[in-house]
Specification:
There is one protein chain. The protein is mainly alpha-helical and about 90 residues long. The chain has one domain (about 5-85): Methane Monooxygenase Hydroxylase, Chain G, domain 1, CATH 1.20.58. Helices cover about 70% and strands about 5% of the residues. The chain has three helices and two strands, in the order H-H-E-E-H. It has a two-stranded antiparallel ribbon with strand order 1-2. It is elongated. The two termini are about 25 Å apart.
């Protein structure tokens, strides 16, 4: 099941922001910036990607996790997807 683009707008914005942050981190490494600054930015981009994953799960919970044969949530699949973010 695919999510409608309008449902994923916030996720897309978070990912684009993370993409920009990652580009900044690469530039920091290439220019020899302080490692504490780099680690701080790595933590920020990691958190942004993590939140995008959780938001995707939250938005798609009903559409993506329903077992079409039973019409009920596939708890095992939900658990697997959720734990993949851990």
């Amino acid at each position: 099941m695919e999510l409608a683009p309008d449902q994923m707008h916030d996720v897309l914005m978070r990912l684009k922001r993370a993409q920009g942050q990652l580009g900044g981190i690469i530039a920091m490494v290439e220019s020899g910036r302080d490692c504490a600054d780099i680690v701080t930015q790595l933590a920020a981009v990691s958190k942004a990607i993590e939140r995008a994953g959780f938001l995707t799960i939250a938005r798609g919970l009903r559409e993506c996790m329903v077992d079409p044969e039973q019409g009920q949530p596939d708890v095992d699949r939900l658990e697997k997807v959720f734990l993949s973010l851990a």
